[in-house]
Amino acid sequence: MDNLNTEPLDPQLLKQVFVHNLNRIYFGKRYLNTNLAHLIKQASFTALQQAIQEFWDDVKKQIARMDEIYKLINETPSDKNCNPIKSIIRDEFCLDEKQAMSILGDMDLIMYLQLLEHINITSCRMLIMVAKLLKYDDAKQLLTECFDESIDNDQLFMLISKEYLTES
């Protein structure tokens, strides 16, 4: 293991870290954006379908915000090193496998979408920290909005879970 460098990163290297991680979440969201209609169709619970639609609307807003961030920092998105995030999104927890009970399929959907939101929450948290160091105030604000939406979506999916599990 390399020795931990305790000195602040040079701004150019810090920008590379920022862009690298922004690319990962950006292309993950773009891939997800093309596949959410399929997930809505898989949900059997109306409230879950509506929650996934709301989540999808937020994904579109987040992509637009990230497009704005790329313009602000004068960078072009690159999916060169984005396979880990896209692989998680592509995997879909075997969601196409038909379950014996609709609750199993819906709970799989909820778990999958919450996992994706937790990745987004963690990524945004780190990107906000780096944006602050780089004094990318506008980018920091846009990332904070993405972060807040992800927190709200995570809570929404928890509420849907509780509603589903306690419905008579």
Topology:
Elements: H1 11-33, H2 36-42, H3 46-72, H4 83-91, H5 102-134, H6 137-166
Helix pairs in contact: 1-3, 1-4, 1-5, 2-3, 3-6, 5-6
Description:
This protein has a single domain, classed as Ferritin. Helices cover 77% and strands 0% of the residues. The chain has 6 helices and no strands. α1 (11-33) runs parallel beside α4 (83-91), α1 (11-33) runs antiparallel to α5 (102-134) and α5 (102-134) packs antiparallel against α6. The longest helix is centred in the last third of the chain and has 33 residues, at 102-134. The radius of gyration is 18 Å and the shape is elongated. It starts with 10 loop residues before the first helix and ends with a helix.
Brief summary:
The protein has 168 residues and is mostly helical.
Question: Can you tag this structure with a few keywords?
Answer:
168 residues; mainly alpha; Ferritin; 6 helices; elongated
Helix/strand order: HHHHHH
Number of individual domains: 1
Q: What is the CA-atom radius of gyration, in angstroms?
A: 18 Å
Distance between the termini: 54 Å
